[in-house]
Amino acid sequence: MAGGLAALLDDIATLAKLAAASVDDVSAAAGRASAKAAGVVIDDTAVTPRYVAGAAANRELPMIWRIARGSLRNKLLFILPAILLLSQFLPWLLTPILMVGGTYLAFEGAEKLWEAVSGKQHDKPAVPAPEQGPEAETRMVSSAIRTDFILSAEIMVIALNEVADEELVARAIILVVVALAITAVVYGIVALIVKMDDVGVRLAATRHGLVAGFGRGLVNAMPKVLAVLSTVGIAAMLWVGGHILLVGVDELGWHGLYDVVHHLEEAVHGVAGVGGFLAWLVNTLASALIGVVVGAVVVLVMHQVHKRRHPHPDGDADAAPATH
């Protein structure tokens, strides 16, 4: 009896060690997958603050929380099951689907770029954001969640590619860990960014000397920081969208465009000290240019379709479609 109990305890200890090793393996794989998606995480962090810019201070965190919940729902309920099934049964469909998302991102970025250049803020409401009410807030949150869907899809596909050799169950667990971790990091940072001005007001009102001065500096700096982040967000949509398309056409067998970019990267990679950075810069600029070109074509098509469906009474040729 004692021998049987000892053998059972040994088996339990062995199973526990195997379980611990599996947890370690999952953690390591999730870490690798998250690191691979770091570039898109930065883009997601830059894009999101522009959706709460101008909102009433007491609505910023609730809006971010709603967007974060929507992001997690995107990843866990829609993207994760879809990409797991596709990777198991129709892996060739992942690239075309991702390219559709890249085209949407390029369109969003190009439209914002056109508005900035032309000075026509078609989706900018006449009423200040804090006075628009819950309907406007819901529209902004929905728009943020739609954009997040594309970025989240790329994050999850990149993560999936990193762990493609794992078993299906292990893949699913790793991607759940990645989804939870990345959502927490992105929207935690976004919350810190948009509430920094409130922190500055509190420091300026309750402290003295250098600390109060630092608080006033935060208050003065945050509008500029948010404006810069909004610009970075537009650039990020063009960059990420263009990069998805650049890699996608190569994976579909049309290698010419990717080969040109790759040769340009190789031409600068040997520069002492900065070769790696220059190669990254070449790829980034090429991706952004592709995003601008493709996005501009889609914007032009969408504007023409909108004009045909909704003729403007004064014949304004630049009337833009309501896309948000």
Assembly of the depicted chains: single chain
Runs in which pLDDT lies below 50 for 5 or more consecutive residues are: 11-23, 123-131
Structural class, from secondary structure content? mainly alpha
Largest sheet: none
List the secondary-structure elements in sequence, H or E.
Answer: HHHHHHHHH
Q: Say how many strands there are.
A: 0
Strand content: under 5%
Rg computed from alpha carbons, rounded to a whole number of angstroms: 24 Å
Number of helical runs? 9
Helix content: over 70%
Estimate the global geometry from the Cα principal axes: globular
How far apart, in Å, are the first and last alpha carbons? 71 Å
Mean pLDDT: 78
Defining traits:
324 residues; mainly alpha
Describe what this molecule looks like in 3D.
The protein has helices at residues 2-36, 38-47, 57-89, 94-118, 134-162, 168-206, 209-251, 256-269, 275-309. By secondary structure, the protein is mainly α. It has nine helices and no strands. The protein starts with a helix and ends in a 15-residue tail after the last helix. The protein is globular. Mean pLDDT is 78; it is low at 11-23 and 123-131.
